[in-house]
Amino acid sequence: KIDRPQGLGPDVNNVWRNSRSVTASFRQVLLDGFDRANDIYRSRARIEAASGKIQARSEAVALAGVEAYVDIVRHTDLLAFAYANVKRHEELAQRIRASFTGGNAPIGDLQQTEERIEAAKSLVAQIKISLETAKAKFRNVVGAEPIKLSAVRYPEGLPGSPDEAVEIAAGNNPRIRASLSEIDVGHFDQKQFESSLYPQLSLEGSATRGEDLEGTPGRNDELKGMVVLSWKVFDGGIRRSRARELSERAAALRAEHDALLRDIRQDIQIAWARYVEGRSQVTALRRQLDQNNKLVDTYFNEYEAGKRSLLDVLDAQNTRFRSRYELSNAESIRLFASYEMLASMGGLLKYFGIESDPSVVTGYSADFGLKMDDLRSASGSLAGSSRGAITTIDLPPLSSR
Fold it and tell me: Which of 73, 99, 42 lies closest to 303, judged by CA?
């Protein structure tokens, strides 16, 4: 109801009417400085970065599982040898005890043998602790009991050189892909903000159909269309300062990426050295162990003949155990290095038959000129912090009392 006696006729003024109207409007942006496009690209890059981080975490978990598996197998083998070492000392003690009873051996020999038996039992307990620690780690990582674990084999298809491994890692390592995607996110974030520095051009329109509007009886239709240009000309330099900030953040992401490449290259080179040079070490330790086995038998026979002291026999027995331990440690480190190199190349999950989700989008770096630095240059190379050596046991020194 509208009361306008000076503007409306007496027949329509101050009369109750039910006004009705429907309006449809549209707005189509014609030019926005690629704001929406960069927003889409940034969102896709974020998805890929998250996917790469998940895959990298999966690779790390798989490698931790391999390490625990190798540790369990190694300590199980060492435990059996440690029990045999105790048995060997006990057999020797029985002989010394018999000789002592017959008056052919001094009490010092018997006491020294019994002391070495306790030392051998202490090593058994120490290895058991390490074995249970490895099993606990396996349960935590794998989520299953370590039952009937077989010997670990070397993976097939390892590269022929560390440079080849680095090249493979450049294309497959999920940490590198995630890092590149983070660079993309920073790049598109910067470009999207820069769109606010440009004018925005849009096409706008509306159509209205109404009845009895503003006190006027009858139909009232309206069509409107226009081209709108909006441009924020002055803001005190806030936007340009923000653009420079985003540019610096993008540069920081590139620097982090370069550091990641150098770390991964270092990991590969270290793993390669352990794998290749470890072969010679394992061969030498096997020969040393063979000689130790012969030496123990020789020293015992010479002791029986009165040409060697009991201390020589006990030291030879301890040396044999240490050689066996060092051989097991070297074999495990070399074996683990091969899987560590596989993980650095981004192929550990694939080796175990675990495929990543094919629905995850692939990157945009190549489309926008974001090229990876040459990994063989001084500024680019390939892995997070280097992993420490596989779990080891510190054996007591072999020095005689």
Answer: 99
CATH code where residue 103 lies: 1.20.1600.10
Beta bridge partners of 4: none
In a domain, 14, yes or no: no
Q: How many C-beta neighbours within 10 Å does residue 255 have? A: 11
pLDDT digits (tens, 9 = 90+) for 95-113: 888 888 887 778 888 898 9
* 230: β partners: 200
| Run of H or E including 227 | strand 219-230
**309 lies in some domain:** yes
Residue 142 lies in a domain: yes
- DSSP for 307-319, written as a single string: SS-HHHHHHHHHH
Residue with tokens 């162990």: 289
State the pLDDT at residue 8: 54
Decide if 112 is inside a domain. Answer: yes
Give per-residue burial for 311-350: e unless 16+ CB within 10 Å, then b.
ebbbbbbbbbbbbbbbbbbbbbbbbbbbbbbbbbbbbbbe
Q: At what angle do helices 238-304 and 174-194 cross, to 10 degrees?
A: 170
Residue type, 61: V
Q: Are 38 and 191 in contact (CB under 8 A)?
A: yes
Cβ contacts of 245-252, under 8 Å, gap ≥ 24: 246/186, 246/189, 246/190, 246/193, 247/190, 249/186, 249/189, 249/190, 250/183, 250/186, 250/187, 250/189, 250/190
**Which residue type does 24 have?**
A
Spatial CA neighbour of 205 closest among 21, 22, 23: 23
Whether 23 contacts 223, CB under 8 Å: no
Read off the pLDDT of residues 173-190 as tens digits, 9 standing for 90 and up: 999 999 999 999 999 998
Q: How many CA atoms lie within 13 A of 354 on its CB side?
A: 11
What is the total count of domains within the chain? 1
Of 317, 372, 386, which Cα lies nearest the Cα of 92? 317
Q: Which amino acid is at 92?
A: L
Task: List the chain residues with pLDDT less than 70.
Answer: 1-17, 212-218, 356-401
- CA angle (253 as vertex; 252, 258 as ends), nearest 5: 95
Domain range for 143 is: 34-197+247-368
CA–CA separation, 150 vs 319, rounded Å?
Answer: 28
